[in-house]
Structures are given as C-alpha cells and as structure tokens.
C-alpha cells in the first residue's frame, strides 16, 4: 500500500474534449494532490479505445470498456465482440459503464436492458467487475442485478440514492462509489448512506469532467478534486482521512485486481 493519503479516482473521463487543452497539467495536478490511481471509463467504443490509449501512456491510469445506455444507438452490430476484444487488454480492469438511463431515454427500456444484460454476462465470462450507471432507474437496476449479477463483483458508480437503495445494492454484493454530490450541504439522505455503508464497500470518484464537488459545483471537474470527496466522507464518518483513503485503496485493489 502506498504512503499516506494515497487517493484513488475510480471513475473519470479524462479523454473528454474538455481536457484537450491541458490534459497533462490536469494529470500532474492530480498527482500533486495525492491521486495515485485513476480508472478511466469508456461509454462507447471510441471512448473505450481512448481509455485504453491513456492507460497505455500513463502507469497510474487503468481502463474500463463498455457501452453506456445513452450510446446504444451508435453501436455497430458487432459491438459486443468489439467490447470483448478491447477487454483483453492487460490494463482493462472492468466492464462499464453499463446500466439504465431513464433520464435521457436515448434508447427504449428493453433495448437498454438487452445491452445491460449482455455486458453483465460478458463481465462474468471475463471475470471482471461491472461498473453500473443508473439514472432514474433504481427499481429496474435492482431487478436486473438481482437476477443477473448476484455474487458478481460490481460498483454502483456515483451512488446518490437513499439507504433503502444502498441496502439493496449492498445485498447484491456491490460496492458504492461516491462522487461530488456527497459534498453538497443539503444532500442529507446521501450523507446518511455514507455514515452507514460498511467501510469495506466504499470507493471514491469524481466522474470528471462532470459533477464537480462543493464549492466548485458547476465548474469543470478533475481528478485532483477526489480529495474533497474523500475528506467529506471521512468527516461524515468521523474518521481520519488516512484511515478512509487506506480502506478505499484496499477496496479498489480488491475489486479491480490491479
Ligand atoms: Ni461516467
């Protein structure tokens, strides 16, 4: 385990065009803030390839490949074979982000479910964890995970539900990854979850360039700010930052098998 305050950002989109002008600076800023590991997430085939390219270039970056529900329409007929092929890369540590998005509804629910289930099966076949995206779709997410992912390792990305939803995810065996919203002063239901979730199920992420934490809400987010998220979680649980980051590090090692 690395020295103190080794932070990990388990969900980034550093390849995004928002970072085209200063990507190298953003990554060195993250390193200066103590971020020792970054998990870069694909949401379609091009971004999955971009995640792998970043992981090839930087030792501290790992890649996750998959098709997110908002990008189903653009997926070619052989998309699943292409995801399977990309997942063979030694720096790919999970399949994702996959799930349901009923906020944007870019594809019909049954089609979203078909893509979700196919990639859960693929993750099981490849012995990789699944990174779950779920927006306005709690009951369908739990229904599919109970049916298809029981006993399979997985992460609820950017968890922002209440305790009942958290309990359902924990029962399936998944970890909860917390992002910017835990820093929002009024997010009391989420703060309650952060206090109650077992320490060995907690991960930290930024989802950058989105979901910037308080007090930078609304601005472009970046991996260095995972520190604000870890500090808030530690404060809510009345524990030291070092104890929190050490546990999160072990949790990440366990699920991603770095
Ligand atoms: Ni994401």
Give the tally of β-strands.
Answer: 8
> What is the annotated CATH architecture?
Alpha-Beta Barrel
Number of domains: 1
Q: What multimeric state do the chains show?
A: single chain
- Within CATH, the superfamily carries the name Metal-dependent hydrolases
How would you describe this structure to a colleague?
41% of the residues lie in helices and 17% in strands. It has 258 residues and is α/β, with parallel strands linked by helices. It has one domain (7-256): Metal-dependent hydrolases (TIM Barrel). It has an eight-stranded parallel beta sheet with strand order 1-2-3-4-5-6-7-8. Strand 3, helix 3 (79-86) and strand 4 form a beta-alpha-beta unit. The mean pLDDT is 96. Bound molecules: nickel (II) ion (NI). Nickel (II) ion (NI) binds next to loops.
In a nutshell, what does this entry contain?
Helix content is 41%, strand content 17%.
């Amino acid at each position: 385990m690395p020295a103190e305050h080794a932070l990990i950002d388990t969900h980034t989109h550093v390849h995004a065009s928002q970072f085209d002008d200063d990507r190298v600076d953003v990554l060195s800023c993250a390193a200066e803030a103590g971020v020792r590991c970054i998990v870069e997430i694909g949401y379609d085939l091009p971004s999955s390839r971009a995640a792998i390219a970043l992981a090839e270039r930087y030792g501290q970056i790992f890649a996750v490949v998959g098709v997110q529900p908002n990008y189903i329409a653009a997926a070619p007929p052989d998309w699943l074979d292409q995801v399977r092929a990309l997942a063979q890369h030694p720096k790919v540590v999970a399949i994702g982000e996959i799930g349901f998005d009923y906020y944007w509804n870019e594809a019909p629910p049954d089609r979203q479910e078909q893509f979700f289930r196919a990639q859960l099966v693929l993750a099981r076949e490849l012995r990789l964890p699944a990174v779950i995206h779920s927006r306005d779709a709690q009951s369908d997410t739990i229904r599919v995970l109970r049916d298809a992912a029981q006993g399979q390792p997985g992460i609820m990305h950017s968890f922002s539900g209440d305790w009942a939803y958290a309990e359902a995810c924990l029962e399936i065996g998944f970890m909860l990854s917390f992002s910017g919203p835990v820093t929002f002063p009024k997010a009391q239901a989420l703060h309650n979850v952060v206090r109650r979730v077992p320490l060995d199920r907690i991960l930290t992420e930024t989802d950058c360039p989105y979901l910037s934490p308080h007090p930078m809400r609304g601005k472009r987010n970046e991996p260095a700010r995972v520190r604000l998220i870890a500090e808030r979680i530690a404060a809510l649980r009345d524990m030291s930052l070092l104890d929190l980051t050490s546990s999160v590090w072990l949790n990440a090692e366990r699920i991603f098998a770095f």
